[in-house]
Amino acid sequence: MSDPDVDSSDPDVGASDSDVDSPDPDVLVLRQKLHGQDGADYAAILRERLPDRNIVHPATPDEQREYLRTARVATGFELDRDQLAAAENLELFAGVYAGTGHLDLEAFEDHGVAVTNASGVHVPNISEHVIGSLIAHARQFPRAWDNKQRGAWQTHPVLELQGSTVAIVGLGAIGTGIARRLDAFGVETLGVRYTPEKGGPTDEVYGFDDVHAAVAAADHVVLACPLTETTAGLVDAELLTSMPTHGILVNIARGGVVETDALLEALRHDEIRAAALDVTDPEPLPNDHPLWDLDNVTITAHNAGNTPNYFDRCAEILAGNVERLASGAELENRVV
């Protein structure tokens, strides 16, 4: 039965976000979702930024396969080898993650397809998350919330960020963003990176061989590094011992950078002040895990990367790269 409220003569009725009879797509937005946002939203933003380009977002898997045969640019989470083999005209895959460890980069290289990532898109939101976490634990907001729940009018000792020192492990785009924002709070920063000779945005820069020295010289520690052979289990009992007892640990890196059992012991025995964990090991954290029961821990379930502006920032990178691709210029954030 037809819907009486729908005008079937309207040419837009029944039309999807794509039309397989349209010209070959300049940019194919894959059928993938992120942070509660649909790919159709991403496509709409790209159309605003690239009004002269044919941006398509297929409504069905069949449409996606058809468009993939002729698209010059595809953007989304991933493409596998079979999809790449079918993408005869593809020149660029624009990943919407900062990391590319989930992609078969060798396959892209074999097919002559350039790959870019979304490095930098998380800088504002994750930096704000880190600063909020530091302030929350320095001012003991979790304790104040608990007092409110109990109707208890109580004061409690606090810390100030101003004049403190924060060690930032990892000086990529996110670590750099954190350092620059902490500067506004009068915080001295110490960076830890693989190539300390490159310097960085922090007041001092250390190599991973000297991570204990950096942590011992700091009040608080922020983890913003990738999970690698070097960083796996980096924050163990020894490194936690290098932190001061008033220190706050913030992890927005990967759960595996921290030895969870060692952290539990340090928190239970007040060897550090608190931990703000956006990532954990294991993840998701089981609901009976003892970390949930500690008053000096906040857990945000990998939410630091959540932002309503994610696709806007991805679109900014991609729109520029579409123009660079046309002119033969070097692509921003190219990894292959």
From TrEMBL:
Is tRNA-binding one of the keywords UniProt gives this record? no
**Region Disordered, annotated ranges:** 1-25
**Compositional bias segments (type: Acidic residues):** 1-10
Q: Which stretches make up the D-isomer specific 2-hydroxyacid dehydrogenase catalytic domain? A: 76-335
> What residues does the D-isomer specific 2-hydroxyacid dehydrogenase NAD-binding domain cover?
132-304
Report the protein name in the record.
Answer: Phosphoglycerate dehydrogenase
Q: Which family does it belong to?
A: Belongs to the D-isomer specific 2-hydroxyacid dehydrogenase family.
The protein's UniProt keywords, in alphabetical order, are: NAD, Oxidoreductase
Signal peptide segment = none
Q: Fetch the CDD domains from UniProt.
A: 2-Hacid_dh_1
Q: Per UniProt, what is one GO molecular function of this protein?
A: NAD binding
Q: Which domain of life is it from?
A: Archaea
One Pfam family name is 2-Hacid_dh_C
